[in-house]
From TrEMBL:
Protein name in UniProt: Secreted protein
Entry superkingdom: Bacteria
Transmembrane segments: 6-29
Record key words, sorted: Membrane, Transmembrane, Transmembrane helix
Organism: Streptomyces katrae
Amino acid sequence: MNDDVRNIVLGVVATAVSGGFGWFTRTYLWRRALRRKQAFFGLPTGSDCLFVVNRQMGGTENSLHRNDAFALLEISALIKDCGATVQVVTHEARQGFGERAEFCVGGPASNSRTVAHLHSLLPGVRVDQSTEAGPDRGAIAVGGETYRWEPGLAEYVLLARLTTGPGTRPVFLLSGQTANSNRAAARYLARNHEELARGHRGKSFCLVLKVVNSDAYGPDVTELVADVTAAARTPAAAAG
């Protein structure tokens, strides 16, 4: 074998080894990212989860606002990525929590299961459920602050990941003042789940998000306003 042939053979071998190592590295990193994503959402491969849909405020009992439907699509993509399946149920479902992951969408005015989760898991949160127009309609009060809905300008939504103990699956609560804010929370969760997983390390959290100038931007411009986990998890009377 002359030098030219030997160099060609060595080049081919080096390329194969390099390509194989690169494939292995990419596969390892992809699998590690998938495992972290599955752990954060409580969705191991082949598992089942609940998606609890609300009713459209002001609509019929079985109607669903199109932005809430879009929220379902945003979350369904996450569920599919994890290799899990989803069961869609109405907000009147009578089921416990912790055995399988759950995504509950809608504020207490349109979702009775949200009412139950706020009472049981976030006792420090108060949401105004009045139906009459006024400055406090839909306002979210937590941690000594009140977040008021300004139609078209500012909408607020609670985004929470809640667990009741080791080994239990999380409940994700997206409780907004409008259907648009529900969709914004779903989009924020989809885009920022890696950062949220690193920041909270598998623990429960409750965030207040603000949807800015929704008349112009829809659900696309969303800001993190506050992490209210401690205040939201503490009963209001005790917090006072």
